[in-house]
Design the sequence.
């Protein structure tokens, strides 16, 4: 047996099949249904040195594992993991940046077009056998033409979205806490200022305490009655009640949502609205990209246990991420 085969890795809940197969070949893998300390077998608790997970890992769970060194999170957004607590405990948290950037940006543009040009509804019209004789699907009220696009969160994915929007011939501006060097897009120091300057807002911001419900009634109202809101970042960044109200009373024209405040529950009020396009959080969900994310989860564990350096530590954990 190799040393790695004596290293116990815990998979709490769902994990990508390819990642699980890779880990099974290298490590001693333990599985439980979810990251609940009550589900940990007592005789294993002191042996678990790594976690591969796609879900919530809270401070209690981290504290229940005295030998824990690394949490390899499947996904670039790691709001489900208490990374500050992990860092304080000397545990490194890794995520899966870059490998999903282009896929998520593709999805964002697809969602934008579907929302503005009503393509899913037009397809349903054909499938329902309604395209007969002179009956045509009505021209969409909204268009991408002459729109001004604002990006909330011009990071890796935001930049990939911006490049695509530019290729569509539309001007781009953005809001981050800090200005991005080397881009020509107009910067706005606040989200409200950005919303006032555009009619189409694409949120690619992470879910953090600072972004919680940042897209609120005021921000939505600033987009205007032709306004379109697209969310490919995190549901927590939006005040969902305010969004529903804005869509009902015409404060904005339409919304396209891949993410929701309380997934997988999507408020019925949103589903009932004709001016909303919904997706089941599938921004990165192609077999190709999920495999790349899964490989990065396993690579982080391998590199940690082989050379003591995580490959893609999250910013909060850089100080405990080893030799780099
Ligand atoms: P990233 O490179 O870290 O970009 C995040 C951007 O948000 C940065 O430009 C950051 O700029 C900005 N930001 C962070 N906090 C902010 C705040 N309080 N106010 C204003 N701007 C803020 O991350 P990424 O790889 O592009 O991923 C972005 C997010 O997309 C992830 O966190 C995840 O939630 C989401 N995502 C969704 C899917 C999906 O399937 N729908 C898939 C992947 C990722 P500053 O630091 O300068 O503020």
Sequence:
């Amino acid at each position: 047996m190799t040393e790695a085969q004596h290293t116990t890795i815990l998979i709490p809940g769902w994990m990508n099949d390819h990642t699980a197969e890779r880990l099974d070949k290298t490590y001693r893998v333990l599985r439980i249904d979810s990251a609940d300390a009550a589900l940990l077998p007592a005789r294993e608790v002191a042996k678990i040195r790594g976690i591969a997970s796609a879900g919530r890992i809270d401070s209690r769970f981290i504290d229940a594992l005295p030998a824990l060194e690394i949490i390899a999170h499947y996904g670039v957004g790691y709001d489900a993991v208490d990374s500050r607590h992990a860092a304080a405990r000397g545990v490194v948290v890794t995520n899966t940046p870059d490998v999903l950037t282009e896929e998520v940006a593709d999805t964002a543009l697809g969602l934008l077009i579907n929302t503005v040009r009503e393509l899913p509804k037009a397809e349903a019209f054909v499938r329902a056998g309604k395209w007969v004789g002179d009956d045509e699907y009505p021209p969409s009220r909204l268009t991408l033409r002459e729109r001004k696009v604002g990006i909330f969160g011009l990071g890796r994915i935001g930049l990939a979205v911006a490049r695509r929007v530019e290729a569509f011939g539309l001007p781009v501006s953005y809001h981050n806490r800090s200005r991005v060097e080397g881009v020509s897009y107009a910067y706005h120091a606040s989200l409200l200022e950005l919303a006032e300057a555009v009619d189409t807002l694409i949120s690619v911001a992470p879910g953090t305490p600072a972004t919680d419900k940042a897209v609120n009634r005021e921000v939505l109202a600033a987009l205007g009655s032709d306004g379109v809101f697209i969310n490919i970042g995190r549901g927590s960044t939006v005040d969902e009640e305010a969004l529903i109200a804005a869509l009902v009373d015409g404060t904005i024209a339409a919304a396209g949502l891949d993410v929701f405040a309380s997934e997988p529950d999507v408020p019925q009020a949103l589903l009932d609205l004709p001016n909303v396009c919904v997706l089941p959080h599938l921004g990165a969900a192609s077999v190709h990209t999920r495999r790349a994310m899964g490989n990065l989860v396993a690579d982080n564990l391998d590199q940690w246990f082989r050379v003591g350096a995580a490959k893609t530590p999250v910013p909060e954990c850089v100080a405990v991420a080893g030799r780099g």
User: Anything to note?
Assistant: Residues 116 and 142 are 5 Å apart (CA to CA). Residues 287-307 form the longest helix (21 residues). The pocket of NAP is lined by residues 76-77, 97, 100, 104, 153-158, 175-178, 204-208, 210-211, 232-234, 258-259, 281, 283-284 (CB under 6 Å). The two ends are 28 Å apart (CA to CA).
